[in-house]
Specification:
This protein has about 200 residues and is α+β, with helices and mostly antiparallel strands. It is about 30% helix and about 30% strand. Strand 3 and strand 4 form a beta hairpin. Helix 2 crosses helix 4. The longest helix is centred in the middle third of the chain and has 16 residues. The two termini are about 30 Å apart.
Length: about 200
C-alpha cells in the first residue's frame, strides 16, 4: 500500500474533542487484501442504507470474490499514487470506509474524498472525524486542497462537510450516474494551505 504511515485514531487531529474521541474505540488502517470478506459482509449489511448514494451494484459485488477484485483494482491505483484507501473496524467488522480518490499532483495538488458509515454507527461523529482524518492525510501527502460532492438531497453529508471547514462552491448538473440515473452534485472544497506546490515547472 502507498500509505506511508498507519495513523491510528489517537493521532487524528481535529477541530474539537468530538473528532478526537469519535474514532477512539475503533481501528483505522489502510485497506488490505484480507479485508475482502469483511467488506462483502459490510456491503450486504448496508445494501439498503447505501442504495440511494451509490452506483447500481451487481450481485458479485456483495461477495468476498467480488470485493477481492475491487481491492486488487484499488491497490493498483494506490500503488500509482492515485488513491489513499482506509477502513474503520470494530474487531473484524467494517464500520466505515474512507478514500482519497483522484489524487492529482503538479499545479493542482488535490484529491476528492468519499466515505460511508455503517447504518448502526451513524449519528456518532464518525463521519466528521473521518473527514478530518482525510484532511490530515492530505496534509501528510502534501496536497493543497480536498474536494467532495454530495447529491442535492444529501443534507446530512453537506452538514458534515461544512462543519469540517469545507465551502460549497458550485453545482454540477447530471455529474454522476448514481442509483440508476444521472444526478446533480453539490460541490465542496477545503483549502489546506497556501504553500508553494513543490519545485518550479521547467
Amino acid at each position: 500500500m502507498a500509505a506511508d504511515r498507519q495513523d491510528g485514531p489517537a493521532g487524528v487531529p481535529g477541530r474539537g474533542r468530538q473528532t478526537s474521541t469519535a474514532l477512539a474505540a475503533f481501528e483505522l488502517r489502510p485497506v488490505r487484501v484480507s479485508d475482502a470478506a469483511a467488506l462483502a459482509s459490510a456491503y450486504r449489511r448496508n445494501e439498503e442504507h447505501l442504495r440511494r448514494w451509490e452506483p447500481l451494484r451487481s450481485e458479485l459485488f456483495f461477495t468476498a470474490v467480488g470485493q477481492l477484485d475491487e481491492i486488487e483494482r484499488q491497490r493498483d491505483a494506490v500503488d500509482r499514487g492515485l488513491v489513499d484507501a482506509w477502513l474503520l473496524l470494530d474487531g473484524h467488522d467494517v464500520v466505515a470506509r474512507l478514500n482519497l480518490n483522484n489524487i492529482v499532483r503538479g499545479v493542482l495538488q488535490s484529491a476528492s474524498i468519499g466515505y460511508w458509515v455503517d447504518q448502526e454507527h451513524t449519528g456518532r461523529g464518525i463521519a466528521g472525524a473521518l473527514v478530518e482524518f482525510a484532511a490530515h492525510r492530505a496534509g501528510v501527502m502534501g496536497l493543497h486542497r480536498l474536494e467532495a460532492g454530495t447529491l442535492v438531497d444529501n443534507v446530512v453529508s453537506q452538514r458534515v462537510l461544512e462543519r469540517a471547514g469545507f465551502e460549497r462552491y458550485g453545482l454540477a448538473p447530471r455529474m454522476l450516474f448514481i442509483a440508476g440515473r444521472w444526478q446533480d452534485q453539490v460541490l465542496f472544497q477545503r483549502i489546506l494551505h497556501d504553500d508553494p506546490a513543490g519545485p518550479a515547472v521547467p
